[in-house]
Amino acid sequence: MIALAAGVFALGYTLNMTYISVFYHRALAHRAVRLPPRVERFVVATGSWLTGLDPKAWVGMHRRHHADSDGPSDPHSPRNAGVLGVFRAQLRAYERELFGLLAHHPRVAARVRDLEFPVSWCNRRGMWWLPYALHAALATALAVATAPLVGVAWFAGLMSHPVQGWAVNALGHAYGRRRFATPDDSRNNLLVALLAFGEGLQNNHHHRPASARFAARWYEPDLGYALCRALARLGIVDLP
Hints:
This protein is mainly alpha-helical and about 240 residues long. It has one domain (about 1-235). About 60% of the residues lie in helices and about 0% in strands. It has helices spanning about 1-30, 35-50, 55-65, 80, 85-100, 105-110, 120-125, 130-145, 150-160, 160-170, 190-195, 200-205, 225-235. It starts with a helix and ends in a 7-residue tail after the last helix.
């Protein structure tokens, strides 16, 4: 059962990171990867259900981070919130972005004016909790059909972004090597990069945010870019 649970966790985690690192981050937020219209429609329709995070609100929050990285208005910088405080800060930043979009706040809407799709159905109706309830139900069904550990593995893998986001935003801006002299505190944390599909290579990414490839050296792990290349070969995305 341990092997099955590990496989289920890996499946859910990889699916989550594909959406967050490839679709939300590299494609929608930075346009470093191009999504054909049909693929973008699919990602927008399924993203909130698979990750619990609205793609438009996530992109707006991330662009706000890049606009003043580690500055006074950075929504989730360890310089402002402390390393442990980033966990709460990123949740509040996401909520502010989502509520601002729902209220049609001009400044919030301007950050994502190129994204020609609305906030997700469940968030428009105040049912943000529905994806979490859905996967909790699926996890319970898996636990009953197989073993409790398998159910926990499914939920933990697919709903893992709060921990991933904290590690990238906190550790990737506090601990690691600075290869490039960027005006922020971004660092390359190789352990976070390994666990978060290249997202821990924050200094490289902040140096070249429009690049789909975060690694600058052969030994820097960037599984997210490997996914980009695999999806491009399958015709699912286009790499510039």
